[in-house]
Amino acid sequence: STADHPDLLADLNDAQRDAVTHTGGPLLVVAGAGSGKTRVLTRRIAYLLAERGVHQGQIMAITFTNKAAAEMRDRVGELVGVRSNTMWVSTFHSMCVRLLRREAKTAGLGSNFSIYDADDSKRLLTLVARDLDLNTKRYTPRTLAGQISNLKNELVDHTDAASKASNELERTVAEVYAEYQRRLQLANALDFDDLIMRTVHLLQAFPEVTEYYRRRFRHVLVDEYQDTNHAQYTLVRELVGTGTSPSGVEPAELCVVGDADQSIYAFRGATIRNIEEFERDFPEARTIMLEQNYRSTQTILSAANAVISRNPNRRDKRLWSDLGAGDSIVGYVADSEHDEAAFVAGEIDALADSGEAGYSDVAVFYRTNNQSRVFEEIFIRLGLPYRVVGGVRFYERREVRDALAYLRVLANPEDTVSLRRILNVPKRGIGERAEAAVAHHAERERLSFSAALRAAADGRIPDLNSRAQRNIAAFVTLLDELGERVERGDDVADVLEAVLERTGYRDGLAESDDPQDATRLDNLTELVTVAREFAESAVPAEAAEAAEAAEAVDELDEEGEEQALPAGSLAAFLERVSLVADADSLPAPDGGDAEDTEQSDSGMVTLMTVHTAKGLEYPVVFGTGMEDGIFPHMRALGEEAELAEERRLAYVAVTRAQRRLYLSRALTRTAWGQPMSNPASRFLTEIPGELVEWRRSAPSGDSFGGSGAPRAATTWAGSGQGSGQSGPVRGTASTGWKDAVPMKLDVGDRVSHDKYGLGTVVATEGTGPRATATIDFGASGQLKLMLIGSVPMSKL
Ligand code: ATP
Ligand code: MG
User: Fold this and answer.
1) Superkingdom of this entry's organism (predicted)?
2) What are the two backbone dihedrals, phi and then psi, of residue 759, each rounded to the nearest 5 degrees?
């Protein structure tokens, strides 16, 4: 009874409570940002467990990123304790991997299948395109990958693609698609889109399998529903069922929550269509709207509404907040991206110094990953603790990929892409000619590449010279020896150490004079650490057992057997890495799910793309690079549909902020390898002027000259047009302080600061790039300025 858990419903509004307690038919919660959709989902799970006697094994919750999954498990954990550990809370991809491993035999897969990420797919497509003699200028791996991905997201397999093809491009894509699938199958590998498509096909082809999961998962819950694509939608429908099955299984209870205004993955095939399909397939569905936003101040919400309301064809929502107007949005026009980063760093420092916000309260957003570098540089120089989320590309670094390729080959010898990657890395005298001979032999004999390699080692490929044959034989022996360690159950970190040792990879880097190789060595050490931590952390068995003991529910108690992969095994590690390395997930030298949530509390500023920020909230948000051509992305200019998506992205960015929002842009920036002068982002200019306080605004006219003195605020709305032509900049005029890097200051010096005006140096510390000064600005109080060279200040 609710009496035992009075708090489960207490802090919910009426509409939220309805959603949490709704019983029976499908439920769709559509509502704007920060209205408590995720809270409803989490609370509903707790309510199911506490009030409706549902067992955690009967719940399947799906989120969009690993980070979101970890947060949800945490939030549910706070409410229901260790029982959350064994619940299926995961991304679509992780869920499918889990299901496919369980059903590998039925699905026609080896249970040790590899997961190919975007880079692996492209490598394979490059091989395929080459072998099919395609014009790779016209059919780039990227184009092919995109086309095939679209088809898979629409659940079109290669036979359908071939029969539907109506022009040359489509026919070529279909041909590549077929060959690509054949090679994937040979390599016992699946790409990301396959994970979903294969699961759907499995469920559609094997009613008894579907029946099992339908019996098992009586509650399916999906967050960020607006970003599911057709394949994912179909997967959900198959799991839930739309009617009573032949053997009498009723459809599961389905609850999806989303916001059409936050649909930001149209490029991945997610469309508003999923909401329409939902209404069509589940006509009896109930829809609940939420209108109160609990996250942001009214100022922030008004800004968000001003931006999103310009999108055509949307259902208008009345989102309101009773948190009050709060602080104005702070606007800043920087001279360059470096100036912008310095401003952001300075503000973060000031907020921290004043106690207004800790580092972990702050997030810095940018449109594309490459924009993080400038921030990272200055944060490092200032000693500002930060972490980059998403696309840190740790797992994309060459040496890391090489090491992982070894592990993948050990886990799955048929993984051709990985095997060919390491064939001659480090160099061992197996050149391209030898590789081609092996590949040719494989093709001719219809063997896998790995089988052909063994044939080569045994001297069964005649057109191979004896030196190459010897080298291949040595390589095969090396792999076998490493493989034995895996067989006897060495943990991942030990296997990895052995790989680095035995292949000579580590020594090669250690002996090199190239400073980059030192970094590579560090990264490998980091990878070993990740593996070590993984092996050690993979023992939640006690907690799981306790949870199982706490509640024994008949046939569902099979979580032990459920873990298809032994915790801490090589395969489990690779699976984690593959899924974590997905574009919208956490990178992670700092580990995976559970660890991340701890990390986020440990006092670091978070840097991330807006895409990654979906679903999250921060007291202080910096939206940077607010320029037409950056955000909205250059690609979207003049494209109505893409512009609408960029606008939704801007809506997502703004609505992450709870109390304070900064929006900045730079007059000039080097982007796409060119100095550019971009006009203000249209999203910036759409925000009503009275909501924004400009710390520094664009100079009037299109000259960038001017002194270091504070500039008079000019009307920013029009200034975009004023200095609007994008293109190369003809020489950046001096603005005084910029050229003064690094400035040498002594006690008693007088300085002029853009924001704080005149001041006197009262103390200095350190030298060079780490020099700091404490300056008395009189009226504005004392201010400690770290890194003298990078603040908007000049010596008088
Ligand atoms: P998004 O669209 O960004 O994913 P959302 O709709 O999922 O947002 P939540 O993240 O669930 O929103 O909630 C936003 C914030 O408001 C959270 O901090 C949450 O704890 C808080 N919140 C939600 N509902 C209530 C409520 N009834 N009372 C107090 N706080 C609430
Ligand atoms: Mg949410």
Assistant:
1) Bacteria
2) -150, 170
| pTM (predicted TM-score) | 0.74
208 plus 150 within the same structural domain: no
Q: Would 87 be classed as within a structural domain?
A: yes
Query: Which residue CA neighbors atom 8 of ligand 1 most closely?
Result: 34
Q: Is 38 a catalytic residue?
A: yes
CA of 581 to the centre of ligand 1 (A): 28
Positive or negative CA dihedral for 184, 188, 194, 199?
positive
Number of domains in the chain: 5
CA of 37, nearest ligand number: 1
What is the reported pLDDT for 547?
39
Beta strand 286-290 with 27-31: parallel, antiparallel or unpaired? parallel
Contact 368, 491 (CB under 8 A): no
Of all protein residues, whose CA lies closest to atom 16 belonging to ligand 1?
294
* CA-CA-CA-CA torsion sign (245, 247, 250, 255): negative
Q: What angle do CA 365, 370, 371 make, to 5 degrees?
A: 40
Looking at the structure, tell me whether residues 414 and 474 fall in a common domain: yes
Task: State residue 697's pLDDT score.
Answer: 86
Q: What is the model's pLDDT at position 703? A: 36
Question: Residue 440's closest CA among 462, 469, 422?
Answer: 462
The pLDDT, as a whole number, for residue 78 is 83
DSSP per residue, 6-71: THHHHTS-HHHHHHHH--SS-EEEEE-TTSSHHHHHHHHHHHHHHHS---GGGEEEEESSHHHHHH
| Residue of 71, 179, 191, 224 marked catalytic | 224
Residue 35 in marked binding region:
yes
Among 168, 187, 206, give the residue marking a domain's end: 187
**501 is annotated as an active-site residue:** no
Choose between 458 and 775: higher pLDDT.
Answer: 458
pLDDT of residue 283: 86
Q: Is the CB of 656 under 6 A from ligand 1?
A: no
Q: How many whole angstroms from 223 Cα to the centroid of ligand 2?
A: 7
Nearest CA to ligand 1 atom 24: 36
* Whole-number pLDDT of residue 768: 56
Give the pLDDT confidence of 411-447 residue by residue, as tens digits. Answer: 999 999 999 999 999 999 999 999 999 999 998 998 9
Distance CA 788, CA 235 (A): 56
Domain assignment of residue 642, given as a range: 301-391+592-727
368 is catalytic: no
- What pLDDT, on the 0 to 100 scale, is given for residue 324? 95
Give yes or no for residue 34 CB within 6 A of ligand 1.
yes
| pLDDT computed for residue 390 by the predictor | 63
Confidence of residue 4 (pLDDT cuts 50, 70, 90): low
Q: Quick count: other Cβ atoms within 10 Å of Cβ 445?
A: 13
User: Which ligand has the minimum distance to the alpha carbon of residue 290?
Assistant: 1
Q: Is residue 787 part of a domain?
A: yes
Evaluate whether 39 touches 28 at the Cβ level (below 8 Å): no
Q: What digits encode the pLDDT tens for the residues 750-789? A: 777 665 666 777 777 666 555 667 777 665 444 545 445 5
Token pair, residue 243, equals 């009617």
